[in-house]
Amino acid sequence: MSNEIGNVPQATMPVHDTAYNEKAQVEHVNDVSVLKGHAEMKADAMEAEKIEHQMTVLQAVRAYPMACFWAFIMSFTIIMESYDVFLIGNFIALPAFTQRFGFFDEVSQKYIIATKWQSALQMAGQLGALIGVFLAGPLTSRIGYKWATLTGLMLMNATIFIMFFADSLPVFFVAQLLEGLPWGIFIANAPAYCSEIVPMRLRAPATQILQMFWAIGSIIVGAVTYSYQKGNTGTSAYKIPTALQWMFPTPLAVLMFFAPESPWWLVRKGKLDQAARSIERLGKKAHVNAHETVAMMRRVVELESEDSPNYIELFKGSDLRRTLIVCGIYAAQNLAGNLIANQAVYFFEQAGMSTDTAFALGLITSALQMIFVMLSWILTTYYGRRSIYIYGTLFNVVMLIALGIAASIPESTASQKAQASFGLIVSVAFTFAAAPVSWCVIGETSSIRLRPLTTGIGRATYYIIEIPCIFLASYMLNPTGGNLGGKCGYVWGGTAFFCLVVAYFCLPEMKGRSYREIDIMFKRRIPARQFEKTVIAPEDDE
Hints:
Elements: H1 2-54, H2 57-63, H3 65-76, H4 78-91, H5 95-101, E1 103-105, E2 110-112, H6 115-143, H7 145-164, H8 169-197, H9 203-228, H10 236-243, H11 249-257, H12 263-268, H13 272-282, H14 290-303, H15 317-332, H16 338-342, H17 344-350, H18 355-382, H19 385-408, H20 413-432, H21 434-445, H22 451-477, H23 488-506, H24 515-523
Antiparallel strand pairs: 1-2
Helix pairs in contact: 1-14, 3-8, 3-9, 4-6, 4-8, 4-9, 6-7, 6-8, 6-22, 7-8, 7-10, 7-11, 8-9, 8-21, 8-22, 9-10, 9-18, 9-21, 13-14, 15-21, 15-22, 15-23, 17-18, 18-20, 19-20, 19-21, 19-23
Keywords: Membrane, Transmembrane, Transmembrane helix, Transport
Catalytic activity: myo-inositol(out) + H(+)(out) = myo-inositol(in) + H(+)(in)
Main location: membrane
């Protein structure tokens, strides 16, 4: 009996021990597998990042030809905001429009639109876009860049009808307001999408192309309105340019339907297989390892918080600094001479040029802007974003002050030509340096997880600053307002100088940096002027 009792523990205890040991072994194997899997992922990520660092611009183009194509298509959506902004600016100087909706001014001996309506018409679209960009962030975070953009394109088709059939200034105002809603989606999504679908070496040209399409929009408007400003006082002079807006949304919608979603967005959503397929569609299989590229993206995404993105996070920790940089760059676009470019035709008229000459100079300005944007691609290949922005803004400050001086001397043909020349130089120089490089900074600065929200709130800042600036610009140029003409150069020169000082102390250099490196430097709170000198090791994760 005692033998049997004594044998019980000998028979049962090893069973428990064996089960415990097997469980421990399984857990150990799982832990090892996880660690091994993480190590393999990190090795793949480091390899993908190394390849991107070693690529030249031409090698990147050869490896990712379709990424370049889809960045081009997405950037094309910007042409619609540009077209309409310049269209309204030109309508204010268009005889057929001013005779229909304006009044005869005894001082200037011509028909003009009342100052309050000039400002209202030019800020209505921006007010709508301000609403649109706040909608764009949550919408894009939820359904992706592709479907958010398609939603905007369909909405754009509908809102053009209101503007086409408008027969009073209040209806034009409402039409512009509604058209602004899809603009907000396009302008918030385009720089983010373009920067996410291309490799590091192509981030600058892929985002700078946005400025080129802005110039193309103004060229089309300039050519159309220039042809109608001579002797045509009928409604067709402004209705046909309005109707031409319909040539953009539907063809773009068809193309965007076939566009790949941003692989970064897909990785954020945990759709790794779809992200890999998206990468394969963007690049050539012979040059691109989709598995390693997804690993690189996962590494960056895992460095950031796993919480759902929201606007409050933009103002916390290191993301606050990144948000302020994006907002500051956007705001500066209105404070460094850009509004003179947007009101070029009206500015040239107030500088003393005839209507015919003013429209011709406006068209020439737009054409030069497009050429200089393309030249800026060469500039960003060899020089950093920070250097280009600071020296470009400094040049504009000097030119704006020179414009003010030219307008301060006794009026003559020479002073009028000098004002027109400086106005043209400011408009073109802005699109050669500060403007295109701004899009690079906007596309690179924000964290991957918060990018749709950051670009949205950054563009909202642009509109918040632009709306009062439009009122100020219209007042300064209008003969029934401040009637300053070229003396407005003093005002914009002062605001541009302020932007220059802020950029010197706050704008970091991000050329040639991966998104992982940028994340780490912001988390380490590296001073802006030290970014270029800071070394981040390939194995660093924080």
